[in-house]
Amino acid sequence: MKVLVPVKRVLDYNVKARVKADGTGVDLANVKMSMNPFDEIAVEEAIRLKEAGSAEEIVIVSVGPSQSQETIRTALAMGADRGILVQADGTVEPLAVAKILKAIVEAEAPGLVIMGKQAIDDDCNQTGQMLAALLGWSQGTFLKELQIKGEEAEVTREIDGGLETLSIALPAVVTADLRLNQPRYASLPNIMKAKKKPIETKTADDYGVDLTPRLEVVETREPAKRQAGVMVGSPAELVEKLKNEAGVL
Ligand code: AMP
């Protein structure tokens, strides 16, 4: 089985996002960018399937600027086999990404697409669901566990207040949640090997997809500043403040 893993280049999760002066979005100039953390988990899961003999080939796809090649290389260094970069500058909304991925799925015929549950830049949590709908495939979202059992996948999902286990027919689209696995670090020899792995470069036009945004960002704001804390002199004073000032007791 071939496994397709879409990965997005996003603002590194350790970097504090700063809003552009004109409020049109987050300032990405000269800041560290990395693979979306949920996508690292998706790549790791694909590699584990390959190591277990359930997958033969892992293909990485990224839609984004030319630097997204580095993100694909990171996945290749972890253990994926080859990459496809769909070069696109500017905003690419989840529906456009899903349409591009659909065309790639039709060309590559994977048995499984493993993606992140959401990209931490826009927090959309839409692309996997949209791709499954466009393909008419089964979907398993927010995975905590994945097992391939012949023509089916058994997926354990993170749901409100617990876990849910479902059996879904393959081919399928599944999305990774935080507890699915702990992604590996690429070793130096694997980083060197990844430099020789092939990455094909395409454009949205190659797949007949129009990238014109359908959404308009009206405003982007910094979160409200946190109020300064207050030192209390005794437990009694704390209780008094919680009762009479905060009103939480
Ligand atoms: P989102 O729906 O934007 O929260 O993204 C969910 C998942 O879709 C991500 O974790 C990625 O696996 C995939 N994805 C979203 N945008 C892209 C992109 N530009 N290139 C490749 N994969 C993407």
UniProtKB/TrEMBL annotation:
Q: Which domain of life is it from?
A: Bacteria
Question: What cofactors does this protein use?
Answer: AMP
Q: Does the keyword Repressor apply?
A: no
Pfam families listed in its UniProt record: ETF
Record CDD domains = ETF_beta
UniProt entry keywords in alphabetical sequence? Electron transport, Transport
* GO biological processes: carboxylic acid catabolic process
Q: Which InterPro entries does this chain map to?
A: ET-Flavoprotein_bsu_CS, ETF_a/b_N, ETF_b, ETF_beta_N, Rossmann-like_a/b/a_fold
Which family is this protein grouped under? Answer: Belongs to the ETF beta-subunit/FixA family.
Quaternary structure?
Heterodimer of an alpha and a beta subunit.
What this chain does, per the entry, is described as:
The electron transfer flavoprotein serves as a specific electron acceptor for other dehydrogenases. It transfers the electrons to the main respiratory chain via ETF-ubiquinone oxidoreductase (ETF dehydrogenase).
Spell out the PANTHER family in the cross-references: ELECTRON TRANSFER FLAVOPROTEIN BETA-SUBUNIT, ELECTRON TRANSFER FLAVOPROTEIN SUBUNIT BETA
Q: What is this protein called?
A: Electron transfer flavoprotein subunit beta
Organism annotation: Afifella marina DSM 2698
